[in-house]
């Protein structure tokens, strides 16, 4: 048996739609695999009742097929489905790394990212790598069709997950198909600022670079209480706040020592809107870890 811990992730980070991703130290999925004649899937943990165990409908089944690595696979969900924290990506990434180790393939990590992205297509309809890249490689990642760049960074974060559901397909449906030249210039500038902030471990620059007037407003409208939570987190000391992935989780970048105050403010703001939530105080994490 091979066991892999695969982290939750936050994609987009405001200005990096379908490109930027960040691994979180917590929460995480744990994937166990054993060789078998055909692939079977068992799902346990948070929200497991909403995850199909049919290999044809599960991200992990697509990964096993792509690797030609049949196995008995058990997924212990620590990342809630439809959370905006890369739940399907954590499972797909964990399975890709675990099956590769189980069969001794020693596949290049970037190729494993592409394989795990095929699993993502089962959920979102598109094989995008913005979540699976950090789930496998860790840190901050830039995923484009030309390749993947990964960078280590040190940032304090709060991921606040409200007790509501936003599906990835619904969140993609509201994304504008066109943007103005001014919006393009603003997005490029913000993305460049965020990248510089990551390289410098500078939460102020990262927060400034999360600003986005194109995708984020359309997705924020799907999250009850988002504006109030954004304002509360900022008032409590967050340097930047945005929708995590497709939502409904809200991600805040913080100065060291302020995560507790920011987390409390975000929970209270959701509560004032009649929404229960849970906040993960975390940091930028590592990629998938193998335990044999």
Automatic annotation (TrEMBL):
Domain GHMP kinase C-terminal span(s) in chain numbering: 197-270
Cleavable signal peptide: none
Keyword set, alphabetical order: Amino-acid biosynthesis, ATP-binding, Cytoplasm, Kinase, Nucleotide-binding, Threonine biosynthesis, Transferase
Major site of localization recorded for this protein: cytoplasm
InterPro entries per the UniProt record, alphabetical: GHMP_kinase_C_dom, GHMP_kinase_C_sf, GHMP_kinase_N_dom, Homoserine_kinase, Ribosomal_Su5_D2-typ_SF, Ribsml_uS5_D2-typ_fold_subgr
Chain positions recorded as ATP binding sites: 80-90
Segments forming domain GHMP kinase N-terminal: 60-139
Pathway the protein contributes to: Amino-acid biosynthesis; L-threonine biosynthesis; L-threonine from L-aspartate: step 4/5
Subcellular location: Cytoplasm
An example molecular function term from Gene Ontology annotations: ATP binding
EC number: 2.7.1.39
SUPFAM superfamilies: GHMP Kinase, C-terminal domain (SSF55060), Ribosomal protein S5 domain 2-like (SSF54211)
Catalytic activity: L-homoserine + ATP = O-phospho-L-homoserine + ADP + H(+)
GO cellular component, one term: cytoplasm
GO biological processes: threonine biosynthetic process
Function text: Catalyzes the ATP-dependent phosphorylation of L-homoserine to L-homoserine phosphate.
Family of this protein: Belongs to the GHMP kinase family. Homoserine kinase subfamily.
Name the UniProt record assigns to this protein: Homoserine kinase
Organism of derivation: Halovivax ruber (strain DSM 18193 / JCM 13892 / XH-70)
């Amino acid at each position: 048996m091979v066991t892999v811990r695969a982290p939750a992730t936050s994609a987009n980070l405001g200005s990096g739609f379908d490109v930027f991703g960040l691994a979180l130290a917590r929460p995480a999925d744990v994937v166990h695999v054993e060789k078998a004649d055909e692939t079977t899937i068992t799902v346990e943990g948070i929200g497991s009742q909403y995850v199909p165990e049919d290999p044809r409908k599960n991200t992990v089944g697509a990964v096993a097929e792509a690797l030609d690595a049949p196995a008995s696979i058990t997924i212990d969900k620590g990342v809630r489905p439809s959370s905006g924290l890369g739940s399907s990506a954590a499972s797909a990434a964990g399975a890709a790394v675990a099956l590769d180790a189980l069969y001794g393939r020693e596949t290049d990590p970037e190729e494993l990212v592409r394989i795990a992205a095929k699993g993502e297509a089962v959920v979102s309809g598109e094989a995008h790598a913005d979540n699976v890249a950090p789930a496998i490689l860790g840190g901050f990642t830039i995923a484009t069709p030309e390749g993947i760049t990964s960078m280590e960074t040190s940032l304090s974060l709060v991921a606040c997950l409200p007790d509501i559901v936003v599906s990835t397909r619904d969140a993609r449906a509201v994304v504008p198909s066109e943007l103005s030249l001014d919006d393009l210039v603003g997005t490029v500038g913000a993305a460049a600022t965020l990248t510089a902030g990551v390289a410098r471990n500078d939460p102020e620059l990262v927060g400034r670079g999360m600003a986005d007037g194109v995708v984020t407003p359309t997705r924020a409208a799907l999250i009850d209480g988002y504006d109030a939570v954004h304002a509360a987190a900022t008032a409590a000391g967050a340097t930047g706040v945005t929708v995590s992935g497709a939502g409904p989780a809200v991600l805040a970048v913080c100065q060291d020592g302020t995560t507790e105050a920011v987390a409390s403010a975000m929970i209270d703001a959701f509560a004032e809107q009649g929404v229960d939530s849970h906040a993960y105080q975390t940091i930028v994490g590592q990629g998938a870890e193998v335990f044999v």
